[in-house]
Amino acid sequence: MPVSITEDIKSVSDLKKKTREIFEQVHRTGRPVVITVNGKPDVVLLDAALFEKKLKALNLGALLAEAEADVKAGRTRAAQDFLKELKRGSKI
After folding, report:
1. Residue 88 is inside which H or E element, if any?
2. Which of 30-62 are b and which e, b meaning 16 or more Cβ less than 10 Å from the residue's Cβ?
3. How does pLDDT run along the chain (92 residues), one tens digit per residue?
4. 20 to 30 Å CA-CA from 82: which of 1, 9, 12, 62?
């Protein structure tokens, strides 16, 4: 999701004057728009569906990091042992 420096960086004044156009740009291009205040980046506008997709990926990454830490710390067991226990507990 690259940002176009010439198209995707807008001032807060631009946002106030051209809100609808900027929202349309975000939806049309799928790229975020960086809003600046006094010439410095302040907030990022992102399509809600794309934000949700990125958030899910981030959450998955956090879960994978936990799993990797468990493997490194030796907090694992054989899959066969787990499945046997699952069958016993669930009466499968």
Report:
1. helix 79-90
2. ebbbebbeeeeeeeebbbeeeeeeeeeeeeeee
3. 677 878 999 999 999 999 999 999 999 999 999 999 999 999 999 999 999 999 999 999 999 999 999 999 999 999 998 998 888 887 65
4. 62
73/68 Cα distance (integer angstroms)? 9
pTM for this entry:
0.65
Matching residue, tokens 């949700």: 52
Q: How far apart are CA 69 and CA 62, in angstroms?
A: 11
Residue 10: enclosing H or E segment and its boundaries?
Answer: strand 9-11
Alpha carbon distance 73, 78 (integer Å): 15
Q: What would the DSSP string read from start to end of 15-65?
A: HHHSHHHHHHHHHHH---EEEEETTEEEEEE--HHHHHHHHHHHHHHHHHH
CB 63 within 8 A of CB 34: no
